[in-house]
Amino acid sequence: MTTTNTDLPLNHQPGHIKHDGHNLTGFIIFLCSESIIFLAFFIGFALLKTTAPEWLPEGVEGLETRMPLINTIVLVSSSFVAYFAERYLHQKNLWGFRALWLLTMAMGAYFVYGQYIEWSELEFGLSSGVFGGTFFLLTGFHGLHVITGILLMALMLLRSFRANNYDKGDMGVTSVSLFWHFVDVIWIILYLLIYVWQRTT
Amino acid sequence: MTSTKYDPRILKTQHPVPGAPDNWKRFFTFNTDAKVIGIQYMCLALIFLLIGGLLAMVMRGELITPPADLVDPSVYNGLYTMHGTIMLFLFLFPVLNGFNNLLIPTMIGAPDMAFPKLNAAAFWLVPVFAIVLLASFFVPGGPASSGWWSYPPVSIQNPLGHFINGQFLWILAVALSGVSSIMGAVNFVTTIIRMRAPGMGYFRMPVFIWTAWAAQTLQLIGLPALTGGAIMLLFDLSFGTSFFLPEGGGDPVLYQHFFWFYSHPAVYVMVLPVFGIFSEVITVYSRKPLFGYKFVALASFIITFLGLIVWVHHMFYSGTPQWMRNLFMVTTMLIAVPTGVKVFAWLGTLWGGKIRLSTPMLFVLGGLINFIFGGITGVMLGTAPIDIHVGNTYFVVAHFHYIIFNTIGFGIFAGIYHWFPKFTGRMYYEGLGKVHFVLTFIGATLNWLPLHWAGLLGMPRRVASYDPEFAIWNVIASIGAFMLGVASIPFILNIVSSWVRGPKAPANPWNAIGLEWLLPSPPPAENFEDDVPTVISEPYGYGLGKPLVEDQNFYVRRSMEA
Amino acid sequence: MTSTTPKPKKGLSLRLILILLSLVGLNLLVSLQIAQWSFSWLPVAASTAAPYVDGLFSLEVGMGAFLFNGCVGFILWSVIANRAEKYDESDGLPIEGNTKLEIIWTVIPFIIVMALAIYSIDVNGKLDTLGPKNKYDVAENQSPKTVASLDGLSEVGPIEVISRQWNWEFVYPNGVRSSELHLPIDQRANFLLTSKDVIHSFYIPAFRLKQDIIPGSVISYSITPTREGRYRLRDAHFSGAYFSENQTHVIVQSKDDYASWLQSTNERPLVPGLSPGTVQYQKRLSKGNKGWATVPPAPPPMVNDPGNPDDPHEA
Known about the structure:
Chain A is mostly helical. Chain A contains five helices and one strand; from the N terminus they run E-H-H-H-H-H. Chain A has helices at residues 22-51, 66-90, 94-121, 129-159, 171-200, and one strand spanning 8-10. Chain A is elongated and about 85 Å long. Chain A starts with 7 loop residues before the first strand and ends with a helix. Chain B has 15 helices and one strand; from the N terminus they run E-H-H-H-H-H-H-H-H-H-H-H-H-H-H-H. Chain B has helices at 34-63, 73-108, 116-135, 166-194, 207-238, 252-286, 293-307, 322-334, 336-350, 359-382, 384-390, 394-424, 430-456, 471-501, 552-561, and one strand spanning 2-4. By secondary structure, chain C is an alpha+beta fold. Chain C has six helices and 13 strands. Chain C has helices at 14-37, 50-81, 99-130, 144-147, 255-266, 276-286, and strands spanning 133-137, 156-164, 167-171, 177-178, 181-184, 189-195, 200-204, 209-213, 217-223, 229-235, 247-253, 271-272, 302-303. The longest helix of chain C has 32 residues, at 50-81. Chains in contact: A-B, B-C. At the A-B interface, strand 1, helix 1 and helix 4 of A face strand 1, helix 4, helix 5, helix 6 and helix 15 of B.
């Protein structure tokens, strides 16, 4: 081929195509996929609970529900706080965002602390049959997600102090807040399965 | 209409990216270029094909005589477990991710993946879990030896009682592989949804993109279930829970549901992209448009959907209730319909074509014939009454090797030859390729065809020894297996020598239609860079005389001059 | 088809139709022959279930052969007839598809597959009436007999089948224990399948029946043998190191022979039964316990009739 470039009449104007805004797409896809692990655990829990010849280990009456209920209320309301934090950010009210964002984190931390207290007071362990196994697996796996959420929020909080952080949009905050809502929804299902369902049996 | 004098520097960016380590060294770095990652995936995968194949040949050596005389039965069990695990998680998935990396951005005109760093991280997890898996050969007690299913309770018996044991490392490796695959899947799907060239609507995407998308969707839905099951298995093995142990109220069959919910679709994860490769190759070498493109494209997602609701056919005789057996028998048989649509479409594409039997086409036609055969035996296995006789026998082994090697493996070889010039910039040697095909086809047929009869007569799978009446089938199979080993020699010779000193490849050696063929060979780091073509017609417009993209001549010329 | 198509042909000529029809007819004959042969690919049929399974298998082999021959024939014909000349760089017929044809080859396979599925469901139901397979959860130290509801139609049994790593033990209603399974011909026998350790599978190829045995549950399972002879019973679910050795015999006898065997065996003393795993494991230990880790085999069960593993079997 010769290397001479001739003028070609072109129908198009060469230029760069912007490929922005797919971070959120990717994150939503990831969350959908992540929810399947929980779904698998939930189905496993339900099947084991309905088929196990003996569900509760000896000497265990069931689970205490008052503390977990308070925990649940705190965690679920933190979702609303996170939502308002995000609203402040859209209104460019940075300090309002930071305050509510920190409050969300604190509420999340309270939840984790409550979980820790509950775990340490239980009279059964991980190896107490399928009851103990599923309880610790589900709450533990969810707890890991809560902790991850708090860490991600901390990261977003620190980043908010960086100059020009939101010039390219606030995709990070949106993603983390989405993750937080996800963690809350999972907890509601989990609470219904583990704490509420036991009364009917 | 604007007349632009195009900048000759476009597409002249050095390959590799300036500043990055030069030539071969870039393949050993955390490079974020999808084309580098694609080649990394493929080369690593092919090395593991050799390792997995070597294990298989030891197994076939053991099985050439009825008694367990070459290796101890416990060693045989470890070998077949590792053979399956390596072939799936270290050969098939990585090699197909290699294709995804090479083809998705170039075929849709994207500069790279949506998340290049995530992409590189997903790749570098592969050697990490490879090391974890291979390390299990050296821990006390040997590697996992409960099959690639790792069904409890066998898998959690842990004879020596060590915390770090072969099964522990196996679960760890599989979990890491899952993380890597999910990272890949998020990336591929996002890239396909968000980064297509202007004008490339969903029904202008090449079929490979459709199938890759359908396959990665399956990964996203199915893989987490396996991960969930694997986590529970790990807890049972190492932390004293009893999810799958009847002693603590658990249920061993529950694991089978978790496992097969993913691992049956996993077959479609692997076979769908190969259907894509079939569609790409058949059109080029028949010089015809794909017959019923839209049907073929949509059939991919129908397979995805049906693939998710068939898993119980692996448990027809596990004490599954009758209604479930009947239900899953119906869904299993239904899969024959969308796959049939694809097969008939390929046949329709051959009709009246100008067929050229180059190496990729030979592999595709061979693979297609094998797939029709494997599909038929698949329907037989999906029929509960027949499955109750042949399930867990060598009939199953023969069937799934017909799919997994004789179809998927053939498709992979076809893809490697077909796109070799594009991504290495060198032509391969046609003669060696044909030798490779002939040896592979004869070897594979000798290896797996006779085993159907061994299975029909009742030879269980996973045996280290067997009754003498099965000897004849096994001798033939072993000869075929060794022949497959020999077949790898012309392949390696071809790939290595062509890459080093093969003739330089033009931009479009096969005169193929597709965005990737509008790029120079090899494509520059950012593919189309600042000038992505606008797609104006459906793919595979052979003989229609319609340009694929706006200003086609400009792009063709540009790719040739670069 | 697009308007640019240079009209491949207006309609099929009579000659072509005749050729095609005769090819299809030939394919049909060949497929029927293969379907006939397929019966000989299976072991001898020795239970009431076998004819159903074999019939269904033969049907699917015939259909499969027809499809396979047709497709492969078409591919080979295309490759020969439509091969491009050496320097022919031109394109083939630009046919993009044919919606009618595509709908046909979606709908017809759908109908065929559904018909096959309905027929298979029917066979499945028949097999179930021949021998139901019901699974019951069983807690530790619970006797299988108290948990499982027995097959009311059975004439023999319940015979307890106990599987272990790696041996089989059969306990008859009169207390006789054996390492080989004895059954009277033409009588429906009921089994209670249990496993002491991992999942095993009760597989008798000559009977075309296979049932996984899940630890923690008992499976009530019935079969009717229809042919006298000695057949192989194989563990068909991977169960650890000596899985492949975990086989024994099923001996189908006349009613009288079975009764007298049951009678005479009852008087024999208990001896260690057949346990191929133990034998292999001893060999391994004597060679210095080389190889990869395995759980030790369960001790051989104490039985009245240890059987003879060296006797020839038919299938």
